[in-house]
Amino acid sequence: MMASMKEIALGLTTILPLPATPDPLCVDLWNEAPSECARLVRLVIAECHDAQISLILVRVPLEVWAELSLDAESLVQSPETRIECDSGLRERLEFWRSEPS
Predict the structure, then answer these.
(1) Which of 56, 73, 91, 96 is deepest in the core (most CB within 10 A)?
(2) What gap in Å lies between CA 48 and CA 60, rounded to an integer?
(3) SS3 3
C-alpha cells in the first residue's frame, strides 16, 4: 500500500528540520499526476507553516507550477516560503531550508 500525500507531507515535515537532512531535500515522484504533486507542495508548505519549520524555497517543474497557479487561493500564504518554477526539473520537487548559493 502506498502512502497518501498527507502521510508523505508529514514525513517530509518531520525530517526537514533534522541537521542530517540534505538541503535541498529532493523528492522524486515518478508517474504522479501534476495535480497530486501540487497537492503535496501545498501540504508540505502548510505543515511547515503550522510547525514553524523554516522552508525558504520550493522548486517545482513547469507542470506542477501550472497546477499550483490554477488554484492559488488554496495555497497557504507563508511569507517566508516562495515557490519557483524550474523547467529543468522532471518529476522532482526541491524543498530548500536555506537560500541556494
Answers:
(1) 96
(2) 17
(3) coil
pLDDT, greater one: 61 or 29: 61
Contacts 24+ apart (CB under 8 A), 67-70: 67/34, 67/35, 67/37, 67/38, 68/38, 68/41, 68/42
Q: What is the pTM of this model?
A: 0.90
- The confidence score (pLDDT) of residue 71 equals 72
Report the percent of the chain where pLDDT is more than 90.
70
The radius of gyration of the chain from alpha carbons, rounded to an integer in Å, stands at 12
Condensed to tens digits (0 to 9), the pLDDT of residues 63-94 reads: 999 998 887 665 666 778 999 999 999 889 99
